[in-house]
Amino acid sequence: MAENKIFAGPKVRRIRNTLGLTQTAMAEGLSISPSYLNLIERNQRPLTVQLLLRLASVYKVDLDELQGESAGNARQLREVFADPLLAGELPGDHELVEIADAAPNVASGILKLYRAYREQAARLTDLADLLAREGHATALPATLMPMDEVRGRLEGRPNYFGRIDEAAERFHAALEPGDDLAAALKAWLRREHGVVVRALPVHAMPTLRRRFDRHSMRLFLSGRLSPFDRLREVAMEAVQIALQEEIFAELDALAFSTAEARRIARFELARYAAHALMMPYEAFYATAQRARYDVDVLRARFDVSYEQAANRLTMLQRPGRAGIPFFLLEVDNAGHRFRRAGAQGFPQARFGGGCPKLGVHAAFSQPGQILVDRVEMPDGAAFLTVARTLEGPQGVFSERVRRTALLLGCDAAHAEETVYADGLRRDATVAVGTACRLCERQGCLARAEPPVTRPLGLDEMVAGLSLFDFQ
């Protein structure tokens, strides 16, 4: 049977130095020659199982220390050097492992410094948001990942692209889909471009939603997807062909700084165009007005999902035919934010969306139920919020279901125009903030962090309700 071999020279050298031994002394204790130990320390010879056992017996060395100590540091260092700030200095994996092996304390120091840097960057962002809300513009330079650049650009502008919406409406009319848009799109793809759409079972596409095979001209869709998501994937394929000119015109207008950011944005605009095709503007706007923006009525009328209908509500900003300026936030149960958008841009300064008391977080305890709240900010601004969980792609029995929650909101001044105001008590207002770091509400039981604008109130004689008392 072959022996398991481990190259851990820097660790052996560190153990020897910690014990104050020379190579000759340690070699004698291990019953090997000093030259062989020298080769081990230079990673030119492996540590065999027998040598590992001798190290553990003679010098009381923890075998886990030799076999797995640096794995965590190397993985975290890889994340550090993936930061755009260090992208130009990105070393190869081998070099990262060497740092973690040879100098674990140095590696830990780098990780601590990086965490401190990220913490300070987050605080500066919070302060910039606070100053912007008070009318003091700031320009904090930062290096953004392509995805962050795309999200920042799209979240900060109205979620309406006129050229795409108008072209999608014309394309829908030309298709004459009747009550079966999916069949009409599949027929168009096959007739005009020779593309055949096929659904494959989970085991055939275990990690993909969609795959286009250029050789056989077939579009494969995962069996994990709901019928609504399959329709969106087919629509995305169609609009990237039929609406290519309009999509690229909007991309040019957004003027992203990198090719990668442009590629990500193209996917987002294709998703927008697919929604515009599935729910043509004029028909959707008229139905939304009649139904008082009831998302469930809209999803049934257009045969789409709750998430798709809610997304479309944030796009109703055609001049002269504008709907309520809704905004949208999607999070998972760990608080990660996946999507933010708004008919007039996501109201980051006024609403924030980071308060743990928002219904979007409570929705996870009541899957499928719609939670409606009137929330009030510290400055008196009030919003109507509608929250509900969403089911992601279906897994197999052994997989945990992916679930996120969607918050649809608008200024409270528009509440009476919606069905969600019916039965909502006017005195039932939830006091929230933009985010814990910017909120100065005293005695908040939900507070998760101290505010950056106040010093902590450390008093041995008094303890407030919050875990983070402040002056």
Please give a quick description of this structure:
The chain is of the alpha+beta class. The chain is 45% helix and 12% strand.
Q: Average pLDDT value?
A: 84
Estimated radius of gyration: 29 Å
Count of DSSP strands: 11
> What does the main sheet amount to?
6 strands, mixed
The rounded distance between the terminal residues' Cα atoms is: 68 Å
Within the largest sheet, what's the order of strands?
7-6-10-9-8-11
CATH fold label of the domain at 144-278: Arc Repressor Mutant, subunit A
**CATH architecture name of the domain at 144-278:** Orthogonal Bundle
Structural class by sheet pairing and helices = alpha+beta
CATH class value of the domain at 144-278: Mainly Alpha
* Overall spatial form: globular
Unreliable runs: none
Tell me the fraction of residues in β-strands, as a range. Answer: 5-15%
| Topology as a string of helices (H) and strands (E) | HHHHHHHHHHEEEHHHHHHEEEEHEEEE
- Number of helical elements: 17
Helix percentage: 40-55%
